[in-house]
Amino acid sequence: MEADMEEKHLQAFGYVHGGVFASIVDTAAFWAVFCKLDENVGITSVDLKLNYLAPVQKGKLIARGRCIKLGKTLGLGKRRLPAVKASSLHRGRQP
């Protein structure tokens, strides 16, 4: 999942809004799990935990998702945003 940050993604103080981060990491985890499912099965996110560690003002956010576990009723997806200038942007997990 990739998104170029533009002025429309910024909050009032000029930093990327936390909701943009949350949407990107949720989408990366969703697709990592969804691609492992049978053709006629649907899913939705049931939990999202995110800790913001550093602000971003511009550039491209890239999230990489990975399916950790797929059970009968829940799938566990994990994702990461690669560090920018050696600084992690967030930590998150999603059961």
Note down, in words, how this protein is organized:
This protein has 95 residues and is α+β, with helices and mostly antiparallel strands. The protein is 18% helix and 31% strand. It has one helix and six strands; from the N terminus they run βαβββββ. It has one helix at residues 18-34, and strands spanning 2-5, 49-52, 59-62, 64-70, 75-80, 90-93. Strands 1-3 form a two-stranded antiparallel ribbon. A two-stranded antiparallel sheet has the order 2-6. It is elongated and about 45 Å long. The relative contact order is 0.27. Residues 84-88 and 90-95 have low confidence and may be disordered.
Brief characterization of the structure:
This protein has 95 residues and is of the alpha+beta class. It contains 1 helix and 6 strands.
Number of extended strands? 6
Characterize the main sheet: 2 strands, antiparallel
Tell me the strand percentage band: 25-35%
What is the molecular shape? elongated
Number of helices: 1
Which structural class matches the secondary elements? alpha+beta
Question: Average pLDDT, to the nearest integer?
Answer: 81
Strand order across the biggest sheet?
1-3
Distance between the termini: 19 Å
H-E string: EHEEEEE
Which percent bin holds the helix content? Answer: 10-25%
Instruction: Name the poorly predicted regions.
Output: 84-88, 90-95
| Whole-angstrom Rg | 14 Å
Descriptive tags:
alpha+beta, 6 strands, 95 residues, disordered C terminus, two-stranded antiparallel ribbon
Secondary structure layout:
Blueprint lengths: L1 E4 L12 H17 L14 E4 L6 E4 L1 E7 L4 E6 L9 E4 L2
